[in-house]
Amino acid sequence: MKKRIFSLLFAVSVAVFAGCAPIPTTPSSSSSIGIGIGSPSADSVLSAEREAYLASVSYRRFVLTGESEPHYIGRWFEKEIGGAPHRVTLTDGAYLCFLIEGASYFDVNFTVITTGEEPYFAYSVDGEAPVRRRITDGRVELPDTGRHTVRIIADGMTEGEGKWKQEKGFALRSVTPSAGGAVFGIRPTEKTVFFYGDSITEGIRALNMSASSKGNSATNSYAWQCAEALGVTPYLIGYGATGILSQGSFHTMRNAIDYLSEGRPADGTVIPDIIVVNHGTNDGNYDAETFRKALAETLAHLRKKYPEAPIVYLIPFCGAHADTIASVVEGMENAFTVRTDGWDIPCTDSLHPNAAGAKKAGGLLADALRERFGDDYFRNTD
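The structure corresponding to this sequence follows.
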């Protein structure tokens, strides 16, 4: 009964979803969008018009979810904060998509739950380059009141936030269109690629030397840039200072596979088409045999959880444990490595790619994946 009451309260105030689980958006009158909104025939016509509009979108392939709320992608979960229902993610790079019409702007309403620098989100309207904002600056102006596709990304939080035990991250309360506007969930139909990794996958220090939210940006990570180059749906699972054995700002990769935080299991409903792993950089203090054993066990667990997905191991840019990784991966079926020797990635420090370096690394990884799977593989949708 408690869960049902929570769901009903949440439906009144929030407009997001996790994976395929929708959560209603804050409603706004949609009377300006067309005549006869209440009649089934008018609804059918408008739905067909929206589908036709989405079919004309060139930067991504979307379909309507059938829900009047955004569609969320990534590691999100429900949590009550300050007496109000929220969707929370502890993972930079989690995002949501929606179609908006009849609105001059919309508000993205976050609640600050972090202890470090205030996090940044990023928004992209109609496929334009993401624009970063502090989460307390959530009003986004639209170019006109026509139809627009929108992506909202949890772009950057401070690396050392207490994610595993304290669940510090992004807490989204609602998405609210301006008066007369309406939001509709849209789902990307491209391949889904999981990216397991550490601070480099997360986008730490992509913008400057700070490991705070000011310097961290998931949309400027190699993982996001690779997904953009391929036209696939990215599912980032990167946490700073973590590894196969190193727990860092979250926990080991094995625990990242199974959990959203301590004691909160990942539901596993989203099945990846490809899995990319980039770990080992933070495991330099472990000898080769200790690392080899832990790596083999972790990848065996990953294979058991996702038996059909090919595993692509991106060798750490610094070359850490490169030979050990190669020997373990080459002994597996449907798995291969991507060597990064000679990539010459520009960094903000000696380790973390800057925005240009992330774009270069993402492009090189995309080239390797196209060579392996073929261009047609990434053109096919569900």
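Residues 1-39 have pLDDT under 50 and may be disordered.
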